[in-house]
Amino acid sequence: MIFEKLRLVNFRNYRDVVVPFSPRVNVFVGENGQGKTNLLEAMYLISQGDSFRYSDNRTLINSNNQEALIQALITQNDLHYKLKLGLSKSRKVLTLNDKKISSTDVRKIFASVVFSPESLASIKEGADHRRELVDELLITFERKNADLIAEYRKALKTRNKILKNYLEGLNDKTVTENLLDALNPQFLRLAADLSYARITALAGLSKDFNNAMQYISKNDAVDISVEYVISDQNAVDFSREEVQFALQKRMNELHDAELSSGTSLVGPHKHDIVFLYGQKDSRFYCSQGQQRAIILSFKMAQIVYHRKAHGTYPVLMLDDVLSELDKAKRDALITFLHEINTQIFVTTTDFTLPESFSLDQLSVLRIKDGHILDE
Is residue 267 one of the residues assigned to a domain? Predict the structure, then answer.
């Protein structure tokens, strides 16, 4: 997958700009707040259907405008694709070669991996950040997992609506429980499928994860493992049937609490992922540098696995992460990037960074206030 060209119209702080790219390494250089990350966000948004940072349509559209447009030309397996994303304050319309396509389906075609300061901090942040890491991994393992994630979210939304209507007095208890009884079998099946898919993906990544961590830390004795936590239990060795049994048991226990709270308290949207460093919980026993190295290794392993599974590497987007790493980890990552044949995008405030790559196919774009100063 190669981004050939990107056009932004009224997106974030860009008025109307067309940006061509190198098929290898592209470095966006500029001070903070000038629009470097906005370029990465636009590419990720149009090829994955969602942003990798918090946003809604209103924040994506340049002030004093009602609509924004992102267009991209992408080459993959010698085929050319024209992507277009139209944004208004209330909707997104995504087309591929002039035919409407869903966010779920576009994610099954194009693969991107983002390294950001937020992702590197995900160990010490809330469980939702770690779930996002694993759900991104799921699509690397099986493209159809994009459908599973979308189906579960739809069922969860429906279930939450039933519970909310009860809490707000729109339906009585009998009606609510009848609706839940009708929905719960499908919801539990999807919840168990998604939970088990996460467990399977984490197990499949284990070897590459450890190898990447040893590479980054220059220590062959480093031991990294992962726990998948369902209701305070490590379910990493659970079978599909054991996962569903645990979910059903918890749903029975929390039935009254769900009615009282008006929201679903059971399911993979409540699970946690714990990264163990030397059999100790990295949230509490690792330094910030070690935590960053763990997530960096996790994403590097995801990239390696993607190559094994699909024969190609995903596009890589590094949003100011090199400045977050110490010299040893930064050098190790740059060496890793040299060794993989894929398109790479890097944002940085360090004007000397491009020298670290020393590649013929290197494009440097200097960005100021939503403008490309030179190439």
Answer: no
The β-bridge partners of 275 are 226
Instruction: Identify the domain containing residue 74 by its residue range.
Output: 1-111+314-375
Per-residue pLDDT tens digits for 178-212: 999 999 999 999 999 999 999 999 999 999 999 99
Residue 221 included in any domain: no
Phi-psi region of 362 (alpha: psi -120 to 50; beta: other; left: phi over 0): beta
- Per-residue pLDDT of 30-42, as tens digits, reads 999 999 999 999 9
Structure tokens at 125: 């942040």
Is there a contact between 188 and 247 (Cβ–Cβ < 8 Å)?
Answer: yes
* Tens digit of each residue's pLDDT (9 = 90 or more) over 53-108: 877 888 899 988 899 999 999 999 899 999 999 999 889 999 999 999 999 999 99
Q: Are 49 and 107 in contact (CB under 8 A)?
A: yes
d(CA 49, CA 45): 5
Q: Report the CATH number that the domain containing residue 19 is assigned in CATH.
A: 3.40.50.300
